[in-house]
Design brief:
The complex is a heterodimer of chains A (272) and B (493). Chain A is an alpha/beta fold. Helices cover 28% and strands 25% of the residues of chain A. Chain A contains seven helices and 13 strands. In chain A, β11 (222-229) and β12 form a beta hairpin. Chain B is extended, with a radius of gyration of 32 Å. Chain B is α+β, with helices and mostly antiparallel strands and 493 residues long. A six-stranded antiparallel beta barrel of chain B has the order 15-16-17-18-19-20. In chain B, strands 8, 9, 10, 11 and 12 form a five-stranded antiparallel β-sheet that branches. In chain B, strands 5-6-1-7 form a four-stranded antiparallel β-sheet, sandwiched between helices. The chains are: A alpha/beta (272), B alpha+beta (493). Chains A and B meet through α3, β5, α5, β6 and α6 of A and α12, β13, β14, β15 and β17 of B.
Chain lengths: 272, 493
C-alpha cells in the first residue's frame, strides 16, 4: 500500500516536472462571470497560449470582440500595458481595419493597442516569435488568415514556451480553420448570439457564446452565453430576453438549451 | 566649385547599338517625332536635337532610334548624384543632365581640385558616360564653362549667361558677343539697357557673386566615413566597418548627451553604385548593438540583396539629427530596463515589415466615421487628441472593424427610407431582426466646390444569427436621390 503510494507520488512528480509549474491563482485572470470562473478555478492563466476559434466564418467579428474582451480582462490589474494585435493582409482585407471609436465603445483605450500587419504567414510567425518574448506586452493577439498551416504543433509549442517565460498571454484567433493538435492551454469556440433588444428594437450589448473545446486541466464542454459589460469590463451572464434566443446556424431547435426560453437559470452549464 | 555634365548613358539604353554608330533618342513634340538627343557620331554627321525624325532618316537611313525616356534620365542623374556623395555632401541636381558639386574644403582629400576632377571623370567614363566637366569659382561660372566647353569665362558666348532668347539676341545685335565684351562695360549701362537680370547674371557668372547651391539633402548632424585602400568584397566586412563607425558615433553622442532616431549607412561600390540602408527608431537611442541589429533586419528585408560587385571602397554612417537623451542608469537591485523593450520590439518590426505596417490608432476631430480614427506608424510621435468617452450604459454605437472603402450590399427595405429588412453581403443573405437608426451623418459640403455630397443614414442592425453590422444608405430618398445605394461600413463584436 505504502509502496504504491510512493510510486504514485513519484509518478506525479515526474509528470509535474514534464507539465511545468502549475499556474498559481494570482497568475490567473478572472472572466468576471462565475459561470466560467468557478469551474476554471478562478479564471484562465496568464502567460499561456489560448486558442479561439470562430464557429463560422461570419463570426469573425465576434471572435475579434471576444479576444479584445479577454485581452482587457488580462490587462485589468496588470497596469496599462500594451496589447499587440498581429494580423495578416488577407485578414485585414476580409474583416476591415481596426476602428478606434469602436474599440473605445468596447472599453479599450485605443492608445494601448498596436496593430501589426504582416504580409504573409511566415512574416506573421516570425513577428509573433519576437513579440511573445517582450515582457512589456500584456496580451498578444495573433490572427492568421484562414488555414495557416505554419501554426502547427511545433509553432504553438514554441509560442507557449516563450509565453511562459515572458508572461505574455497569447490569444490565437482562428477563422475558417480546423483545430489541429497544439500546445495551447485552452481552446474555445466563439459564436455571436442575439443580443437583448433595447427599446424600439435596437440591438443591445454584445452577446457571445463561448464554448470550451479543450482544456489542460481536463475540463471540456463548458459553455456559456456571456454579455460584455463595457462599463465594468466584465463578462456577465446574458439575460434571457423575451425576443428569443437565436438559433445558432446549422442547428435545429431541439438541440438548443433544454432550459427553454422563459427559464432564468444560468445559461452556462457543465456538460462534461 | 565644379559642374559636370553627364552625356547620355549608352549602358542604360540602346544595348543593341554599336557605340560608334549614329544614334538618336526621339520624342513627340508638337505632333511630330523629333530628335531629343543624339550621340557624338550622329552629331558629327550633322544631326542635331530638334530635327524632324523623317528628315533625319532621309539623311541617315541607318540611324539607330529609341524612345526618349525622361524619367529614366532623371533616375540616372539621381543615381550618379548618389555616387558623387563620396566627394562632397553638397551635391545639387541641374536637370536634365547636369550636376553641381560644391567641393570647397573637400578637394585636398583627392589630391587637389584637378585630382578630384580627374578621379570623378574617370569613374563616370568607366560607366560609359560622356562627361563634360569644369571647375569654377561660383556655381554659375562652373555651369557656364561646362555647358559651353570653354576654359576662359571671357571667351564664352553671351548665351552662357542663360538669359531669355530675346535678351541674348539683343546683346548680339548690339555687338556684344562674348562675356568679355560685357565685362568691359560698366554694369549700370548694362542694366539700363538690357535689364537688371542681365547685370545680375553677369555678376553671378563672371563677377564672382556666389549663390550657394541647394544640396539634394540637408547636411547630417553627424557624418562618419571610412575609406579602404583596397575594396572589400564582403557585405559582412562592410557592416563590421559600419559597426565601428556606429561605436564612434555613439561615443560622440554620449559626450553631448544626445541620441539619434534615424541612422543611414551608405555603401559605395568602386563602380559608383551606392546602396543606402536607413533605419529608424521610435525613441532616441545610442546603443551600438541595437543599431546594428536594426541594420541586420533591414538587410534581411531587402527585396534585392546587397551585391558587393567589385567591392566597396567607402562606407559612411550618418545621423541626420540629434535628440536629447539623458544617460541611463541601471537599477541597483539588478534587472534590465524594461520600459524600452516594447519600443525596441516595435522598431525591429517596423524595420523588418515597413513602418506603415506597425501602427497605432489616434483620434481625429471629425464627424465623418472613416476620418475619426487615424492609423499612424507606431514609430512616430502620436498626435495629441483625446478620444471622446462612450456613454455609460449604452451598447457600442461604433463598430470595432471598419471597411475602407465601404462595401456595397443589396438591401431589401420595407419602405425606401426605412431600415433594412434583409441584405445580401458576400453572397450571404442576412435576415435583420433588430435595427436601430437612422443616424444621419451629413457630408462635408462646405469643403466641396459644388456644395454637394450625399448624406448617409446609418443603421445598427443584428441578423438572425446574432451578428451585428453597421450599414448605411447613401443619399436621402426623394431629396437627394431616387435609388439610394446601400453599403456595409463595419462589423460589431
Amino acid at each position: 500500500m505504502d509502496e504504491s503510494r510512493i510510486i504514485l507520488a513519484a509518478l506525479k512528480s515526474r509528470i509535474g516536472a514534464i507539465e511545468g509549474p502549475k499556474p498559481s491563482p494570482a497568475a490567473r485572470f478572472a472572466l468576471g462571470s462565475p459561470v466560467l470562473d468557478s469551474p476554471l478555478g478562478g479564471g484562465l492563466p496568464r502567460g499561456r497560449l489560448h486558442e479561439l476559434f470562430a464557429a463560422e466564418p461570419d463570426d469573425r467579428a465576434a471572435l475579434a470582440g471576444a479576444a479584445l474582451m479577454l485581452a482587457m480582462r488580462i490587462g485589468e490589474d496588470a497596469g496599462p500595458r500594451s496589447l499587440l494585435w498581429l494580423r495578416q493582409d488577407g485578414g485585414v482585407r476580409t474583416s476591415g481595419l481596426l476602428y478606434g471609436p469602436g474599440l473605445l465603445e468596447l472599453g479599450l483605450d485605443p492608445a494601448r493597442l498596436v496593430e501589426i500587419v504582416a504580409p504573409d504567414e511566415a512574416g506573421l510567425l516570425r513577428a509573433a516569435g519576437d513579440a511573445v518574448r517582450c515582457p512589456d506586452v500584456a496580451a498578444l493577439l495573433i490572427e492568421p488568415w484562414k488555414s495557416a498551416r505554419g501554426f502547427d504543433l511545433t509553432a504553438s509549442r514554441r509560442l507557449a514556451i516563450a509565453a511562459e517565460k515572458s508572461g505574455v498571454t497569447v490569444l490565437l484567433l482562428r477563422t475558417e480553420a480546423e483545430p489541429v493538435p497544439s500546445a495551447a492551454y485552452s481552446r474555445w469556440r466563439v459564436r455571436s448570439l442575439a443580443s437583448a433588444p433595447l427599446e424600439a428594437g435596437a440591438p443591445g450589448h454584445p452577446v457571445l457564446e463561448m464554448e470550451l473545446l479543450r482544456h489542460r486541466g481536463g475540463l471540456a464542454g463548458l459553455r456559456a452565453c456571456l454579455e460584455w459589460n463595457r462599463d465594468e469590463h466584465v463578462f456577465q451572464e446574458a439575460p434571457l430576453s423575451g425576443a428569443g434566443l437565436s438559433l445558432p446556424a446549422g442547428r435545429s431547435a431541439d438541440a438548443g438549451d433544454p432550459g427553454g426560453e422563459g427559464a432564468r437559470e444560468p445559461r452556462g452549464r457543465l456538460s462534461a | 566649385m565644379r559642374e559636370i555634365r553627364a552625356g547620355r548613358a549608352p549602358a542604360s539604353l540602346g544595348a543593341g547599338f554599336p557605340p560608334d554608330a549614329p544614334f538618336a533618342l526621339v520624342e513627340k513634340q508638337k505632333g511630330a517625332m523629333r530628335l531629343a538627343a543624339v550621340n557624338r557620331a550622329a552629331l558629327e554627321l550633322g544631326l542635331a536635337p530638334g530635327l524632324n525624325l523623317a528628315d533625319a532618316r532621309a539623311r541617315l537611313p541607318d540611324l539607330g532610334v529609341a524612345d526618349h525616356d525622361r524619367r529614366a534620365d532623371a533616375l540616372l542623374l539621381e543615381w550618379i548624384a548618389d555616387g558623387c556623395d563620396r566627394y562632397t555632401p553638397m551635391v545639387a541636381l541641374d536637370p536634365p543632365d547636369g550636376l553641381i558639386l560644391d567641393i570647397s574644403g573637400c578637394a585636398h582629400l583627392f589630391g587637389g581640385e584637378a585630382g578630384l576632377r580627374a578621379d570623378l571623370v574617370e569613374r563616370l567614363q568607366r560607366l560609359g558616360l560622356q562627361v563634360a566637366s569644369a571647375l569654377g569659382d561660383t556655381p554659375d561660372a562652373a555651369h557656364a564653362l561646362a555647358r559651353h566647353a570653354g576654359d576662359r569665362l571671357e571667351a564664352l558666348p553671351v548665351e552662357a549667361l542663360q538669359l531669355d532668347q530675346e535678351e541674348s539676341v539683343a546683346l548680339r545685335r548690339a555687338g556684344l558677343k562674348r562675356i568679355g565684351d560685357l565685362q568691359e562695360r560698366p554694369s549700370q549701362i548694362l542694366s539700363a539697357r538690357f535689364g537688371e537680370e542681365a547685370a545680375d547674371r553677369l555678376a553671378r557668372v563672371a563677377g564672382g557673386r556666389d549663390i550657394r547651391i541647394t544640396p539634394r539633402r540637408a547636411e547630417p548632424a553627424l557624418l562618419l566615413e571610412r575609406r579602404f585602400a583596397e575594396p572589400i568584397g564582403r557585405t559582412e566586412a562592410a557592416l563590421a566597418a559600419i559597426a565601428d563607425l556606429a561605436a564612434e558615433a555613439v561615443h560622440r553622442m554620449e559626450e553631448s548627451q544626445r541620441g539619434g532616431r534615424r541612422f543611414e549607412a551608405q555603401l559605395f561600390r568602386t563602380d559608383g553604385l551606392v546602396r543606402s540602408l536607413r533605419v529608424e527608431t521610435g525613441l532616441p537611442v545610442r546603443d551600438v548593438p541595437l543599431i546594428m541589429r536594426l541594420f541586420d533586419e533591414r538587410l534581411e528585408a531587402l527585396a534585392d540583396p546587397v551585391d558587393p560587385g567589385f567591392g566597396f571602397d567607402l562606407v559612411r554612417l550618418s545621423v541626420p539629427g540629434f535628440e536629447p537623451l539623458a544617460p541611463l542608469q541601471l537599477p541597483l537591485e539588478g534587472g534590465a530596463l524594461a520600459e524600452g523593450e516594447l519600443a525596441q520590439l516595435l522598431d525591429r518590426l517596423s524595420t523588418r515589415l515597413g513602418r506603415g505596417r506597425v501602427r497605432r490608432l489616434a483620434a481625429q476631430d471629425s464627424h465623418i466615421p472613416e476620418q475619426a480614427s487615424l492609423l499612424f506608424p507606431a514609430i512616430e510621435t502620436p498626435p495629441a487628441q483625446d478620444w471622446p468617452g462612450p456613454e455609460p450604459g449604452e451598447p457600442p454605437l461604433r463598430p470595432t472593424h471598419l471597411f475602407d472603402p465601404p462595401q456595397p450590399i443589396e438591401v431589401i427595405a420595407g419602405v425606401p427610407d426605412g431600415p433594412p429588412q434583409r441584405f445580401r453581403w458576400r453572397r450571404h443573405l442576412h435576415e435583420v431582426t433588430l435595427a436601430e437608426g437612422p443616424e444621419r451623418i451629413a457630408p462635408l459640403w462646405w469643403r466641396r466646390a459644388d456644395n454637394g455630397g450625399l448624406a448617409r443614414d446609418y443603421y445598427r442592425v443584428e441578423d438572425r444569427h446574432g451578428r451585428r453590422f453597421w450599414l448605411f444608405r447613401h443619399g436621402l430618398y426623394g431629396r437627394e436621390t431616387t435609388g439610394p445605394l446601400w453599403y456595409i461600413h463595419g462589423l460589431f463584436a
